[in-house]
What we know:
Elements: H1 2-12, H2 49-52, H3 65-68
Amino acid sequence: xxxxxxxxxxxxxxxxxxxxxxxxxxxxxxxxxxxxxxxxxxxxxxxxxxxxxxxxxxxxxxxxxxxxxxxxxxxxxxxxxxxxxxxxxxxxxxxxxxxxxxxxxxxxxxxxxxxxxxxxxxxxxxxxxxxxxxxxxxxxxxxxxxxxxxxxxxxxxxxxxxxxxxxxxxxxxxxxxxxxxxxxxxxxxxxxxxxxxxxxxxxxxxxxxxxxxxxxxxxxxxxxxxxxxxxxxxxxxxxxxxxxxxxxxxxxxxxxxxxxxxxxxxxxxxxxxxxxxxxxxxxxxxxxxxxxxxxxxxxxxxxxxxxxxxxxxxxxxxxxxxxxxxxxxxxxxxxxxxxxxxxxxxxxxxxxxxxxxxxxxxxxxxxxxxxxxxxxxxxxxxxxxxxxxxxxxxxxxxxxxxxxxxxxxxxx
Length: 412
C-alpha cells in the first residue's frame, strides 16, 4: 500500500493540475527520489519530506538553493549568514548538500565584492607580510584563474618600497651603471614615468661622491672655467644651493691663489696692496688671510721703502745716515743688519763725515793731515786709498810743511 501511494506522489508531478495539495505527507520509504530528476544527497537525504514539500505541495517544489535557503521563502530554510562574502545566489556553484562547509570548490566568478572582502586573513588568506605596500585592489594585478605570477602590474596603488619588488629577482632592479644611491627608488623616480628621474634629484639618497655622477657623462660636471680643484665638490658646494659656493675649502684648491682671486672670480689684490708678484701664498695663508703672517720679500716687485716708510711698517730710524730710499742697495731682506759691505755710496746723501766720524763708521785716522771734513775732495768711494791726485790743497788746514816733511809727502 505504501509503495502504491508513493507512486501516486510521482504521478502527481507528471500531470498538470493534479489535486494533491492538501494530502498528508506519506512515508517516503522505498521511493526513489531520483525519478523526479532531483537526487537527494547529503543532508537532503535525511531531511523529512514535509520540510521541502510544505503543506503537502509536491509539484513545483523549487530546486535552486536560494528558493528555499533564504528569508521570506515558503520553505524558510537557513540562508546565507550576514558574514557571508558578497556573491551571487547560486549557492550550488561553491556548496553542495554532502559537504556544505567548508567550501570544497570556489568559483570566483560568483563573487561580487572585492578580493579583500574575503582575503583578509579571517575568511581567507590575505596579503602576506612580504607583499609590496599597495592600496590597490588585488584584481588589479592578480587573476583568480592564476594568482601567481601576477597578470599585470599597475603601479598606481603602490605607495613605497619599490626595491622590495625591483630587486633584480622579483622584477628588474637597479642596473650596474646606476649611480651609487640608497634603495629608496621613489625619492627620484615615479611609476608613471620612470625615466628620466625627477628633477631636482633628492641628493640625500646618493651615497657616492658628487663627481661619481657629475662627471660630464651621467650628469653635468665642472665647467671649463672652474678653478683647478680636487674632485671633492662637497667641500665647497651643497646640493641644496650649488651656486654660488657657500664656502671655499682652500685645501681642495690645486691652482694658485690668483687663478681665482683675480678680481673677477673672487676679490683680488686691493689698489693699496704692496707691489708684489701674484704668488699670494708667499705672504698669506688661507686660514687667516689678514694680516699677512709669512712675509716673503722675494715676492716684492718694488723697493723696500714702499712698505718700510714708517706708516705701513718700520722705516729708517732717526739716526740713519742721510741716504736715498733705495734700502736694498745696502740691506738684504734675509739679514737687515748690519748693512752689506762695501756700501753703495751712491745712495748716501750726506757728506762723508756725517757717517765717517769715528762713531757711525771709521773716521779720519790720528795720522791724517789736518784738513776740512770734505773727504770727497781728495778721496773716492770706489777707491778710498790712496787719495786721488792732485790733492785739493784748499781743504788742507795745516802748513805745507806739516805734510810735505819728507814723510807724509815729498819735502824740500
